[in-house]
Amino acid sequence: SATPLGLVGLQVWRGALLMSDFLFSKESLLPPQLISKEMSVLELGCGTGFVGIVAGRFWNHIVLTDFDHDVLRLANRNVILNQDHIEGSVVVRELDITKQLPWEQPSSSESDPGHECEWQWNDTDKRMFENDVKLILVADFLYDDHVTSAFVEHLPSLLSNDRIILMTTELRLNFTVAEMSVTSPAHTHFFNQLNSVFGSRKDCSPRNEMCTASCSFGRVLFDFIDVNRIAQRFVYDRVKEMQFYRLRWGTESDALVGTEQS
Description:
about 260 residues
């Protein structure tokens, strides 16, 4: 049965384990500028904090975000319990992707004090995101159409300043009467939203040896990363439905490259 929306962050999903496997292989799969230990990293939908704790072994500043306060408390507790395994700084902050993004909100002096909480972003956090974060990790985020739509709408802001988003996900297949076939409705919605918001998908040659395929949706450059290139370190069933994506914001000329796919 489906996990209620409020509880999805209280367990470790396979996408988080695949993302954590990737972090141990990052030297061979990421460009040098993203390997620098001095870089700051943000995770969307951190859940238990597993991915962020692993990331804390490799980078100096990690920001874990989620929207549910019970989930944030769990993530923060796990960060504290695993402090001996973290070499950098890992902080927990509230971020509801269906609302205005924190770095786009008024400064702390202008915000409503009635909404203050221990997970609130301060002005230092906002400057850090805008100036220092170059990598955003998103593990198993495609579970609710409303959340997915909001994520797609926020991509221009998330991908600004040359940021890269790395996404892991699992195709959860169901037979649908609408399609009269076995599909993954959550992923169908995701790609439909990309088409709707940014423009029709245009396929192109794989951008490098890591990719099994590459395409663009307008200025959103989208790569399908070969999961088989990621060594498995954690114990879990890495099913064939696991997928790994890389998203970047391209130039206007990038949007014209490729063959349009309806």
